[in-house]
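pinned: reference chain
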Amino acid sequence: MLWNPEDWDAVLARTEKLRSHGPAPLTALQGLLEKVPDAERKTVADLGCGTGALLPLLADRFGHCVAIDYAPRTLARARKSCVGGSVRFRRRDLRDLTPFRNSFHVAVAVESIVGPRLEDIDRMLEQVRRSLVEGGRFFAVFPAMQRQDPPRPMRLAGHDHSVDMLCFHEVELQYRLTRHGFQGIRLRRVRDEDAGKDKLLATSTARANN
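pinned: its structure tokens
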């Protein structure tokens, strides 16, 4: 699969039930977002907003909300779900968030930092960090390697030839977030009963964009 915008639309159409993210991951993420101090003064970005499941909460809690997605039909559905809301919608590839550098106090990514190539994952993490102000918070849900999966060595960029989404174990995700300028990283494994799989809920803070 080439993973162009239409491919992402097709993936969502096939897996929309699974992309509800299950009650446990979504509830845990919402709980963290509700604890962000002075949210009414801050700008939040929903990176890979999908059909907009989180947008009502973000728009209600934060002073400004930007919804970003790569897939055109998916973004159109998100717009319809937030008619009359104070949300700005932008179609953008998460591998290039240059227009948003130092723009967000909080960034949220729910299984949108994904793909079949580590080069793309690394690029997205770097772009997310650059889009945050110094000390900005990053809340993300990542697909996790399951506990029963056989262990394997740390993967290096350029070694992936899979058409499937990459999944992560805690050590690797910690490494990748640290490598791309995040600190204060906390990882929590959360069971998504709808999908029958674990997810990794990550919270971290962006270092200065040097």
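why pinned: DSSP finds six helices and seven strands in the chain. Residues 5-206 form a domain with the Rossmann fold fold (CATH 3.40.50.150).
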